[in-house]
Design brief:
Elements: H1 2-28, H2 44-54, H3 58-67, H4 69-89, H5 97-118, H6 139-158, H7 162-185, H8 191-215
Length: 219
Amino acid sequence: MKKNGKKTLITGMIMLILFSVWTVLIQTVDVQALGQNGTDIGLASLNTWFHKTTGVHMWIYTVTDWLGLVPIFICMIFGVVGLVQLIKRRSLFKVDKDIILLGIYYILVILSYLIFEMIPINYRPILIEGRMEASYPSSTTLLVMSVMLALAFQVHRRIRNTNVRYVLYAFTVLFTAFMVVGRTVAGVHWLTDIAGSVLLSTGLYLIYQGTVQLTDKNN
């Protein structure tokens, strides 16, 4: 398992490197002033073609926005799990390491979101309630993929009932697919924003998984 952990950790780092390269590319390749109020958009031909093809569907945006509360609720559940363990065991060091690492992982996801909110790479293709908003990477896609991938990992570790495990796996896959596809076709992000979120969330998750595998007592 430790060998697998190292491979997973390295793969996660590679994904973050790819995310960094992708971020540079969308700031340097085919940059055109085709965004809101003449803002620059990288890979503009691809982005504008895809945006015109899918159009804007605000109802999908609204639905996926509200469903973004689901991963937040899941984070709260694991927060309660950690808190209960802390109270019962009376020491942070006695809380399950994968739960502590999960908390750190959630913090890294939030920090990633905040950094790109403070340093916008580009803006949404449409105004949201009359305002220009940072669009890269897609925050909803980042949140959903980061939380749901970790949920599947925790289900694998903690749920012994096979039927319950498969139901939760199915929910995780279907919900994630719906949210990512929905956010992609809603027309509130550029295609490159979604791709950036997929790379970033996958990289962060694999680093979390690899770290857990490396620190697991059973290894």
